[in-house]
Specification:
Length: about 425
C-alpha cells in the first residue's frame, strides 16, 4: 500500500505542496459563437469544420439531441434538422482564447496555456493573497472569466497537473463546474477514474494496462516502480508519481514559439479571379500577422498555398527580411501567387504560411533602422490596428487592399483622437 498522505525528499524535508488548477472552457467553440451571437443561447448548436466537413463542437442541447461528435455535416443536417450549424471561425476563437488567458494571467503570474481552450494555473499561495479558500478562489476565477470574456469554464484543482486534469474532467459534470481534490480526496478521485480517462495514458497504452488487469487509476498507482518503468518507460513512472500527488511537471509560463503560423479558408464559391484570390489572401495575411504580433514574433519566410477545385495543391515559399507587418508580407506574397495562378483554373482556397519565426526579444536591431524609419512607422501602425480591432472587433479597419465588406460603424470609429500613435 502506498502512503499518499505526505511526501519527503531524500534529505527528509517535506516537499512543497502545490495547488494547481486546470481551467477548461466549456464547449469552447460553441461558447464563442454564443458570445458573438447571444440569440444562440439555450439552442442546440453545432460548430462544423466547413460546408463539406463534420461536427467539431456541440452545445449541451445538441449533445442531448444525440448528435455524435465528428458526424459528417450532411448526415447531421439530415438526421437533426432542428439544430443550428455554424462553420468554425478559428480566428475569432483565437481572439476569445486570448481574452480568457489574459484574465487568468491577471489572477496568477504562472499560467501555462495548454491549448486554445485550456490552461494550467499555479494557485499556490493565492489563497492567502485573495483571503479565500481554494474553492472560493475557483469560484472567483469562474466569475471573472465569465464576466470579462463571456466564456463559461470548468475548474479542477489538485496537487499536480495530472490530478488537476482529472479533477477538471469531473468538474464538467458537476453543477458547480468546480472540483477540488486535496490530498485526502486523491484516492477517491483515482478509484473513480478508469485508466483510459487518465491524461497521458491514451488509446494505445490503456488496452495494454487492461491486459495486466489495471482498470482504474488507483490500480495503476499500486504498481511497483520497476515493473512500470521496465514495461512502459520513464514517462509512465512519472505519471504514477503525478497521480500520487508528487509534482513532477511544473506549471511553466515560458512562451513556446510556434514552428509556423498559417491561415487559410475555403472560398464561398470556386473562383479563378486573381483579384478575388488576392483579397482573400490579404485577409489571411492580416489574420496570420495578428497571431504573429500576439506571440511577439517576426517571420523570415512566407509560403503561399493555392488549392484547385480538384484538390491539387500548389505551394511556394520565399525568404524576406524579418517582419510581422501585412504590407511587407503581401509585397512578397502577391508575386508568388501571381506565378502560380492560371486564369483557366478554378480554385477552392488560398492560404498563407509564416515560418522561420523569431521572438522580437531575440531579433537583432537593423543598424539602418533609424528612429522614425518606415519600418518603425509600420510597426506603430500595425499595433494601432491591433488595438482598435481588440476594442471594436476584427476587420473594423479597411486596410486599402481588401474589398471585403466592413461594418458601417467603422466610419466613425477611425477618428484621429482614437489613433494616438
Ligand atoms: Mg474544453
Amino acid at each position: 500500500m502506498i502512503d499518499i498522505s505526505c511526501y519527503w525528499d531524500d534529505r527528509g524535508y517535506i516537499l512543497e505542496q502545490k495547488y494547481i488548477a486546470l481551467i477548461d472552457c466549456d464547449s469552447f467553440f460553441v461558447s464563442c459563437e454564443r458570445k458573438l451571437n447571444p440569440d444562440l443561447n439555450g439552442k442546440a448548436v453545432c460548430v462544423t469544420s466547413g460546408e463539406r466537413g463534420c461536427v467539431i463542437a456541440r452545445s449541451k442541447e445538441a449533445k442531448e439531441m444525440g448528435i455524435p461528435m465528428g458526424q459528417p455535416l450532411f448526415m447531421a443536417k439530415r438526421d437533426f434538422p432542428k439544430c443550428i450549424y455554424i462553420t468554425a471561425n478559428h480566428s475569432d476563437y483565437s481572439d476569445i482564447s486570448h481574452q480568457v488567458m489574459s484574465v487568468l494571467r491577471d489572477i496568477s503570474p504562472i499560467v501555462e496555456v495548454y491549448s486554445v481552450d485550456e490552461a494550467f494555473v499555479d494557485l499556490t499561495g493565492l489563497s492567502k493573497l485573495y483571503k479565500m479558500n481554494y474553492y472560493k478562489l475557483a469560484e472567483h476565477i469562474r466569475k471573472r472569466v465569465r464576466d470579462e470574456s463571456g466564456i463559461p469554464v470548468s475548474i479542477g484543482v489538485s496537487r499536480t497537473k495530472a490530478l488537476a486534469k482529472l479533477a477538471s474532467d469531473k468538474a464538467k459534470s458537476m453543477e458547480s463546474h468546480i472540483c477540488i481534490s486535496g490530498k485526502c480526496g486523491i484516492p477517491r478521485l483515482l478509484k473513480g477514474t478508469s485508466v483510459d480517462e487518465v491524461w497521458g495514458i491514451g488509446r494505445r497504452l490503456a488496452p495494454k494496462l487492461r491486459g495486466y488487469g489495471i482498470k482504474t487509476a488507483y490500480e495503476y498507482i499500486q504498481k511497483n516502480d520497476v515493473w512500470l518503468k521496465s514495461r512502459f518507460g520513464k514517462t509512465a513512472l512519472e505519471l504514477k508519481y503525478e497521480l500520487m500527488g508528487n509534482l513532477i511537471n511544473k506549471v511553466s509560463n515560458k512562451k513556446v514559439l510556434p514552428k509556423s503560423i498559417s491561415n487559410s479558408r475555403a472560398f464561398e464559391e470556386f473562383s479563378s479571379d486573381l483579384n478575388y484570390i488576392k483579397n482573400e489572401l490579404m485577409v489571411h495575411i492580416h489574420a496570420a500577422c495578428r497571431k504573429l504580433r500576439r506571440v511577439d514574433c517576426k517571420c523570415g519566410t512566407i509560403g503561399v498555398m493555392l488549392r484547385t477545385k480538384d484538390f491539387k495543391v500548389f505551394y511556394d515559399k520565399r525568404d524576406l527580411p524579418m517582419t510581422n507587418f501585412e504590407f511587407e508580407i503581401s509585397q512578397s506574397a502577391y508575386p508568388i501567387l501571381e506565378a502560380m495562378h492560371d486564369k483557366s483554373t478554378l480554385y477552392r482556397s488560398v492560404g498563407i504560411v509564416l515560418e522561420n519565426l523569431h521572438s522580437n526579444a531575440d531579433s537583432q536591431l537593423n543598424l539602418f533602422d533609424k528612429k522614425g524609419s518606415r519600418r518603425e512607422k509600420n510597426e506603430k501602425l500595425a499595433k494601432s490596428i491591433d488595438k482598435l480591432e481588440e476594442k471594436f472587433g476584427r476587420n473594423i479597419i479597411k486596410t486599402g487592399f481588401t474589398n471585403k465588406e466592413i461594418p458601417a460603424k467603422a466610419e466613425f470609429l477611425i477618428k484621429p483622437n482614437e489613433c494616438n500613435d
